[in-house]
Write a structure and sequence with these properties.
mainly alpha; single chain; Mitochondrial carrier fold; about 70% helix
């Protein structure tokens, strides 16, 4: 299972933080390819400021099926992979830093603080801290990804390097860290809940005598992702709104645009103009994405850890024979 497990000692070499980073990067890369269309849908819903109404929908996108059809008709199939290059950089970098930090922290807790590293509370704290370190590292890439997904036709940014140069020139270096406040507020509990609930569901499955394996990792991760996303979703929406602040010209074809003077002003304007439901725009595709992305990340990570662990054990056995 994810994290330092003292009971695993003697069953083969432990993975180092470097190897955990490799496994985390590979897990993030493969997961991103599969879930990018869901991310596009989620961001498009989050950036709409029009009120959602079941009787008279005024927003451009007002349902998953309708949004998929509209994007496909107006922008083509490739639109569902808009921002895929920075998104891949984000996933690979985030996965590497997060899992390497988590493995290091759980091992530190066990060795230095003499705590049970398998405890869900330990996983919550270590998972949250690992995600915070990863978030600070990749925030500029996340902002670029959001802007690529947000822009319509004609495009404001032609490619990644054009976007970096344009943002730096027009808005300054701090523009790459827009939305960092709600991101940091959300990422600690979100990632903490992910790791904690993944740990809890693994324990429940073990208690229920459900056979362990890759399918179990996928299901436990999916359930953990759904619960974590539901608990922290409004902060994710606020982050996306702030990341496209100053990018209004690219949003004109999607409906109304809005400017925010910081985090609290964003909270106030969403509450006043869109109501409580405004904080949960895009929740449906986000829930689907959270289930698949979290489940797949843990699935791939555990799989690559097993492969790397088996490889280390084989190499160690060969060295002993020699």
């Amino acid at each position: 299972m994810v994290g330092y497990d003292p009971s695993a000692q003697g069953r083969g070499p432990r993975l180092s933080p470097r190897e955990a980073a490799v496994a985390g990067s590979a897990a993030g890369l493969l997961t991103r390819v599969l879930i990018n269309p869901l991310d596009v849908l989620k961001i498009r819903f989050q950036l709409q400021i029009e009120r959602l109404s079941l009787l008279e929908p005024r927003a451009k996108y007002h349902g998953i099926v309708q949004a998929v059809g509209t994007i496909f008709r107006e922008e083509g199939l490739q639109a569902f992979w808009k921002g895929h290059v920075p998104a891949q950089l984000l996933s690979v970098s985030y996965g590497a830093v997060q899992f390497a930090s988590f493995e290091f922290l759980t091992k530190f807790v066990h060795n230095a603080l003499l705590c049970d590293s398998r405890n869900p509370t330990v996983h919550f704290v270590c998972g949250g801290l690992a995600a915070c370190s990863a978030t600070v590292t990749v925030q500029p890439i996340d902002t670029l990804r959001t802007r690529f997904v947000a822009q319509g036709e004609p495009k404001v940014y032609r490619n990644l390097w054009h976007a970096v140069g344009t943002m730096y020139r027009r808005e300054g270096p701090l523009s790459f860290y827009r939305g960092l406040t709600p991101t940091m507020m959300a990422v600690f509990p979100y990632a903490g809940f992910q790791f904690a609930f993944y740990n809890i569901f693994h324990r429940i499955s073990k208690w229920a005598n459900i056979s362990s394996g890759n399918v179990q990792n996928l299901v436990c991760g999916g359930c953990a992702g759904i619960i974590s996303k539901t608990l922290t979703y409004p902060l994710d929406l606020l982050k996306k709104r702030l990341q496209v602040n100053g990018f209004q010209e690219a949003r004109a074809s999607f409906g109304q645009v809005q400017t925010y003077n910081g985090f609290l002003d964003c909270v106030f304007q969403v509450a006043q103009g869109e109501g409580l439901r405004g904080f949960y725009k895009g929740l449906s595709p986000s829930m689907v994405k959270a289930a698949f992305s979290t489940g797949l990340v843990f699935f791939w990570y555990e799989l690559f850890c097993d492969i790397l662990g088996d490889s280390k054990q084989t190499d160690s056995g060969h060295q002993q024979q020699q």
